[in-house]
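Handout, section 4.2: multi-component inputs.
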Amino acid sequence: MKTKPIVGILGAGKLGTVLGRLAVNAGYTVLIAGSKTVDRIALTVDVLVPGAIPKTKTEVVLEAEIIFLCLPLSKMRSIPLIVDDNKVVIDAMNYWMEVDGLAKIPSDPNLTSSELVASVIQSSKIVKAFNHMGYHDIEFESHAPIRKVIAVASDDQEAKETVMTLIHDFGFDSLDLGDLKAGKILEPGSELFGANLTKEEFQNVITKLSA
Ligand SMILES: NC(=O)c1ccc[n+]([C@@H]2O[C@H](COP(=O)([O-])OP(=O)(O)OC[C@H]3O[C@@H](n4cnc5c(N)ncnc54)[C@H](OP(=O)(O)O)[C@@H]3O)[C@@H](O)[C@H]2O)c1
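Output:
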């Protein structure tokens, strides 16, 4: 049987700890780092993501095969920049003014925040996913009897397929939106932001938006 890839999470906050729990429950080895030292997040990880291993950011980037970005978008430059090309990076970050400040990121309205992330982090395997659903809903909906959908966008097909497998393991359906730019509809301001929908319902909204 193929072993599951090691999952790394940068950002041990609301979203990072929920995704960490889902990954541990799905049988993944999970490494997690926050902004503080390993000692300072050990208790958080022990209580909120039992089974996960607290690490430094550099260790997560070096050791994990799938890396979730779950920190404020404005802190992305603190991510260890060189990510090995074999690794898949899931960008779950959003621009949120209250957290990220008034300097809107990105300033180009035609650019998705994940395209900006892809230009800062030297990785070709950036996948935009888990941006549109609130952390509490992600946890709740992962047990829903009728699966809800998590959509993915990336310029790398293989990376998208890896992430879609993980999404299924977390208890969701997946939907391939296309390239990274197509992930715009997962961002704040979109009708789909905050929506907890089945795959069919999600596709119907996309059809309506593009009509
Ligand atoms: N909350 C949601 O429902 C939700 C849903 C989808 C997407 N998102 C996006 O996910 C990201 C995280 O949101 P959140 O709600 O989880 O925020 P949060 O609860 O404030 O957690 C952010 C985490 O990132 C850590 N962090 C800050 N700077 C860091 C750095 N330089 N390196 C490593 N870790 C750092 C923080 O650590 P310290 O506490 O030590 O500073 C904190 O643990 C944001 O971009 C947000 O827009 C959130």
